[in-house]
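Query form — protein Dienelactone hydrolase family protein

QUESTION: What is the three-dimensional structure of this chain?
INPUT:
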Amino acid sequence: MQHRSIDVNIPIGDAGMGGHLAVPATAPRGAIVVIQEIFGVTPAMRAIADDFASQGYIALVPDIYWRLQPNLDLGNGEDPTMRQLAVDYSIRFDEELGTQDLVAAADWLKSFLELPYQPAVLGFCLGGRMAVRVAAAARFSCMVSMYGVGLDKMGAQIHSASCPVQFHFGENDNHNPLTTIETVREATRTRGRTSDEFYTYPGAEHAFYNRFRLDRFNEAAHQIARERIVRFLAHHMLGA
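ANSWER: The structure tokens for Dienelactone hydrolase family protein are given below.
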């Protein structure tokens, strides 16, 4: 499916947060807020948004680091120096303020496009944690967290999310040991909602979904996860 991509500015207070917006050429099936990894709004994140636009979904990647340094692109993690710089930015990133910014981005997306339904939220790594935060803070049609980090300490937020949730982890994730993954699985199970989904991928590493991360990308796991995400979105987006 054809789509177009544009850079946008999301008004927040007297300033604005940038973002990459991918829009399908035909009437959208739904809308997604895509939350970046620790490396910024990189070509990899733009490509993921474009891919979902090709599936019929409007996809917005907000520049969550805009208060620290707008328009960051720190690669995909292979370079140790750039990776450490990205870690430094993630540590400096104010997650409470970032949650407010992401909720504002979702509100802007719904208002700007006059959507008659709530967007979904999909995040990767740091974005996978932020997806849980924003799903607990505001209404979304559904939430997908791809190998979110630190989620074993976020049971309260997982339980607070009012929408259906879907989690994905590689079983060989150096940032999420199996004990962490099982803690998140249990938190999801105790929500007691049949609409929730939880998946793990044998042999897959952290960032397995990122085609640009050549040392981690797992084609088989990516394809299965993509199919599951698209099905989940189609089931829960009111615009589907």
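ADDITIONAL NOTE: The CA atoms of residues 126 and 158 lie 15 Å apart.
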